[in-house]
């Protein structure tokens, strides 16, 4: 049912009934402007803690827009808050970061709080529509203990997303009780997935993945799940303007212990958003903006009822997620084996937390890399360790390191290894007695050369391809 509160300019701005590429593009430009204005400037990278966000929540107590309440505390005693806004009939609950290292949507929620507090910027019609038709319940950072260590699990080492039914952890109790108290019609379950998810059959990262979780093993579609699917189609339409072909649909196998599946089962139309990877966005700041835009768009669509025009068939047309990406993929390398035999391999490198490592070898033709190189005609060369030992990484500058690289050195040794993880030297930094093995195997640091006629032509170093 379409409601009549909407003014014509807003229709054009958000591009529904009059829709068409042009209007949707306008919507995107307006959202981009809003993001620039309202981005929470105290959060600039994806690793932050409860102490960083608590003042941003507390300062909103009694500000007239948000009703802030403490829902309870984590295992280690960190307060978990709910921010409620609007006075509309349709209740929508949004919770983020039940996995402590999945912070992208948390950043976007604070941007949205700032946005909701704005005025006289051309968005007042939208704000009024949201306030009038929706009551929003935000629960940012459901797992602050995990966030403290930037890891997935809570302080019991539980995956909270497998604790929806047993509810043994206080964080799970908080979310479950919030749901039974509010009985939201819609729910947004906000997560991050690893950056190696791609859109099935393509090299495009699944920068955003979506799911209307199943509520039973048969994966049936009832009225509750159908509405979640319709909202997702509306979201996909906007996202295609930002990341054409970059939206994947998550696997809908029923997980009886997960929150999304149970919210759906308990009668809340639940939408899962998973923030994945995007090229050259390690801190996920662009993906944060996508979250800001798509969550606002979804809320608007719920407030106006516009989502109801969408077909569930279009939900199933969203391509599936796959997991075939790697950071660096080098194809068709010639390797000289132990007995002098030649063989061909592809080399898969992932950057990981500490340093890049080789994670797969063999025929990797079905995989894709954020960066790729066809090394046909080049031979694998392990690289030497520089003979002189440095006191620390501060005793060698990037220019000197580059000249060692050009001479076929892939690694140096230092007496004091402090700070070696943070160096931007194009060399592997080993400890005093460390060595770089000659062999090519899974787990080996991803630092080596590709040679032609015995001379290094490319250095593979620190996750980059360097032409020498
Ligand atoms: Zn997650």
UniProtKB/TrEMBL annotation:
Query: What are the positions of the active site?
Result: 255 (proton donor/acceptor)
Is the keyword Protease in the record? Answer: yes
Could you confirm whether the keyword Hydrolase appears in this record?
Answer: yes
Q: Tell me the GO BP annotations in alphabetical order.
A: proteolysis
- Write one Pfam family the protein is assigned to: Peptidase_M14
Molecular function via GO: metallocarboxypeptidase activity; zinc ion binding
**Annotated keywords:** Carboxypeptidase, Hydrolase, Protease
In this protein, which residues make up the domain named Peptidase M14?
Answer: 46-302
* Family, similarity comment: Belongs to the peptidase M14 family.
Protein name per UniProt: Zinc carboxypeptidase
Q: Which organism is it from?
A: Sinomicrobium oceani
